[in-house]
Design goal:
The protein has about 350 residues and is α/β, with parallel strands linked by helices. The chain is built from 18 helices and nine strands. It binds nicotinamide-adenine-dinucleotide (NAD) and magnesium ion (MG).
Length: about 350
């Protein structure tokens, strides 16, 4: 059975006795820094000189210093830069300041698991990974709740690394919802698999292919949009609230019969074989190697694919239809909250 920690399991005195540096002020960074500060933790934000986030963080009442100074002052460094940037910033401004007994924390296992960053012995290496985007981590906290999180330990130098991670998780609100023990490899591999196969890659490819099939067959793009994209939220909300059974209970018998008999024809043995192949690429490091090389090489292919996605017909149709449903746009996240992780 999984170990899940709640508020009563957290020793808040551990994080309270630390000087914490939150490096980066993006989706996760702003939420961690503000929640820690509101929980009474001694926190400073480390940003590069000239960063546009300096003003935002200061306006929110946080103390902002250079990354180098933040790491020098702190005995717990939480690295919340994009995963592809972490290694160079770590080497340039953080590594030299890590001393025995310090802690280096992450919100995703990528750089430790794929050995991009190798912290010195004597340092606790831990993870507190909220299972939700930063704006939710902040909003749930301000509403008295929290977003669930995973905790893991890659190196336990003090013997207290896990307890410190749970304490940190409590201070950002996660113990209100539940904090699940995992490992760096499980978190990294399942996170990448989930976003590639189901949450981001699988679902967008399914929606686009369904839309294209209807439009090719001569149906109105607007009908195809409502059917293949708009209604998805209603179905996902039902699954989120009560599981797949409860969703099936809510739809018509006709929809349920179509689901049960046609779903397995869409996700067939060939698709399952691809899922296993994608998992193998994640586990043996091929995906990480490819993405690190793409990032170092200027991200040309990434930008081309992104542009192609932005020009897809479903985006134009959707923009026009959503303009007639202003309540949808009102709930939209800001772009800085939208990155995955
Ligand atoms: P982000 O892209 O939103 O923010 C990164 C911040 O780093 C920004 O403030 C940016 O200005 C700054 N930055 C970028 N490059 C830099 C550089 N070279 N030097 C200094 N600063 C730089 O990142 P994020 O989505 O918050 O991700 C941070 C970590 O959290 C990652 O490890 C990610 O995997 C993890 N994570 C993210 C989410 C999510 O929903 N966004 C969820 C769970 C975990
Ligand atoms: Mg994720």
């Amino acid at each position: 059975m999984a170990t899940i920690s709640y508020e009563k399991d957290a020793d808040r005195s551990l994080i309270a006795s630390r000087k914490v540096a939150v490096i980066g002020y993006g989706s996760q960074g702003h939420a961690h820094a503000l929640n820690l500060q509101d929980s009474g933790v001694d926190v400073r934000v480390g940003l590069r000189e000239g960063s546009s986030s300096v003003q935002k963080a200061e306006a929110a009442g946080l103390r902002v210093v250079s990354i180098d100074q933040a790491a020098a002052e702190a005995d717990l460094v939480m690295l919340l830069l994009p995963d592809t940037e972490q290694r160079s910033v770590y080497e340039a401004a953080i590594a030299a300041h890590l001393e025995g007994g310090d802690a280096l924390f992450f919100a995703h296992g990528f750089n430790i698991h794929f050995e991009q960053i190798s912290p010195p012995e004597g340092v606790d290496v831990g993870m507190v990974a909220p299972k939700g985007p930063g704006h939710l981590v902040r909003r749930a906290y301000t509403e008295g709740g929290g977003v669930p999180a995973l905790v893991a330990v890659a190196q336990d130098a003090t013997g207290k690394a896990r307890a410190l991670a749970v304490s940190y998780a409590a201070a950002i609100g996660a113990t209100q919802a539940g904090v699940l023990d995992t490992t760096f490899s499980e978190e990294t591999e399942t996170d990448l698999f989930g976003e590639q196969v189901v949450l981001c890659g699988g679902i967008t490819a399914l929606v686009q292919a369904g839309f294209e099939t209807l439009v090719e067959a001569g149906y109105q793009p607007e009908s195809a949009y409502f059917e293949c994209l708009h209604e998805l939220k209603l179905i996902v909300d039902l699954m989120y609230e009560g599981g797949i059974n409860s969703m099936r209970y809510s739809v018509s018998d006709t929809a349920e019969y179509g689901d049960l008999t046609r779903g397995p024809r869409i996700v067939d043995d060939r698709v399952r074989a691809q899922m296993r192949e994608i998992l193998a690429e994640i586990r043996d490091g091929r995906f990480a190697e490819e993405w690190i090389a793409e990032s170092r090489g200027g991200r040309q292919r990434f930008h081309e694919l992104r542009e192609r996605g932005r020009r897809h017909q479903i985006e134009q149709v959707g923009q026009e239809l959503r303009a007639m449903m202003p309540w949808i746009a009102a709930g939209r996240q800001r772009p800085e909250d939208a990155s995955g992780g």
